[in-house]
Amino acid sequence: EQVAVSDEVVSLYTVSSGLRSEKDSIWVLNSNGVVLVEFFAPWCGHCQALTPTWEKAANVLNGVASVAALDADAHQSLAEEFGIRGFPTIKVFAPGKPPVDYQGARDVKPIAELALQQVKALLKDRLAGKASGGSSEKSQPSASVELNSRNFDELVLKSKELWIVEFFAPW
């Protein structure tokens, strides 16, 4: 799946909100991870009420899943493509699966729990060799990085992403 997310979300969200978007351009998402997308309209009162919750969800899920917002008025063809009929609509995208509609409460905890369920399902699929990103995918670049005393602080300690580090002795 590809989802375009425009920075036209500034009508509801600030640049520092933690949401995935890029200034004055379209971000095309072809993610290997879980992505939550809020389809909204700037004039929608329910969307405006969801804004602080969605920003908190973006911050809580930072490094775990991507969180984005798409102005469905500005991108009507995408809204139509994904069957958006009301606002706000939240969909969860995971590699190799159709988007899932979020039907739960508009609160950070249940939104984050759904994201974690989707991440867990993706990990299970990868471990079983069923989804992209796993070790059976030879065309994918390696997600491992050799760390050393010169790059450890910059890559790991200063990163907002989650890292799994294996320390080993070469003997």
From TrEMBL:
GO cellular component terms given for this protein: endoplasmic reticulum lumen
GO biological process: response to endoplasmic reticulum stress
Highest rank taxon of the organism: Eukaryota
Listed InterPro entries: Thioredoxin-like_sf, Thioredoxin_CS, Thioredoxin_domain
Positions of the Thioredoxin domain: 1-124
A GO molecular-function annotation: protein-disulfide reductase activity
Pfam families: Thioredoxin (PF00085)
Protein name in UniProt: Thioredoxin domain-containing protein
Higher taxonomy: Eukaryota, Viridiplantae, Streptophyta, Embryophyta, Tracheophyta
